[in-house]
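Reading group handout, session on sequence-to-structure problems. Before we discuss, look at one worked example. The prompt was deliberately terse, the way you'd type it at a terminal:

> structure Integrase arm-type DNA-binding domain-containing protein

The input record follows.
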Amino acid sequence: MARPKNKLTNAELKAKGPGKYSDGDGLWFHVRADGGRQWVLRYTSYGRRHEMGLGAYPGVSLKAARLEAEKWQAVVRDGKDAIKERERQRRDAERNLHILRDIALDAFESRKAELKGDGKAGRWFSPLELHVLPKLGKMPVSQIDQRDIRDTLAPIWHDKADTARKALNRLSICMRHAAALGLDVDLQATDKAKALLGKQRHKAQHIPSLNWREVPAFYQSLDGGTITELALRLLILTAVRSYPLRHLHLDQIDGDIWTIPAEAMKGRKDATEDFRVPLSQEAQRVIAEATLFARDGFLFPGVRKGVISDMTMGKFMERRGMVERPHGFRSSFRDWVAEATNTPHDVAETALGHIVGGAVERSYRRTDFLEQRRALMERWGSAQIVDVKRRGKGESVVVSL
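And the output record:
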């Protein structure tokens, strides 16, 4: 026989004094001595009686309380404890309400050890910070789908293709990070968004670089003796990237060898060996001159603290009216090697710090071609200080090697 229900009316709820009043089927209306009124569901689970709060009146109306009571009584009839089931559902809901910004920051934190300088330069995080988080940062990660991602990246998908590609890559990493945390996310969302966005029209643009024949003239023009000019001279002479050069510490130099820590080498996340750079006589002269400016052991200190910024050398060249960038000197060097020397491919690539060959090949080849590179870098250094002769009225430069 069904238990009586719907005993109370809205008029009675307002008139009731302190006490507990049954509406039937386990739903009770409790009026406290202080005047507070709330709904309670009584049920029995595994032989024990429980009372489950359903909210305060009038925030929870009579109709809403009856619907809630019916829902949880169905859970009890299904053999579950209503209170425990509600807590489980609440935990699941909270777990899936993690917003993307929090997930992105956590993913970034967990990857810092893999990034140069623990990611302090911000290049890993900036595509997210600038192009994804402003629109999706406050959105629960479990609710992000391919349409959200498409709409977010569409404005830059073709015009800033490389940046958009990096942003999509970082977002994919964040989604996988969220899944690893146990969150309910669509791991295919980024791939589906890429399909919706279509093939990018933008073609990658190489960093502008000086023709290797013009590098000596530029090198010899760096005669002001400033930290920036000395840094540019050494950047040209060693053909390394900006980061390890800017963070060059005096204890990394031993005679004519500069040893760059493995973690400072781009593209060598899994490397366990440092990278040795042979220093030409000209490079050693530049280092000796720069040592006068050293602070806290760093050869190229910043104006106030730390080291010179990534933009310092680029801005110097820009003020000279140049479109070329410091990183382009690596291309200048590589072209010189290809056009003016007979250097083997593996030696040339190793000189740039590139990883040559597959994992198996590298496991058998233990050399870093130091002696061959020492002769190569000495020849490159000498090329920068020879007499420069201009032909006719043109700007081409002939260098005798």
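Points for discussion. First: The beta strands are 19-24, 27-31, 37-45, 48-56, 253-254, 257-260, 275-278, 389-390, 397-398. Second: The longest helix spans residues 161-180.
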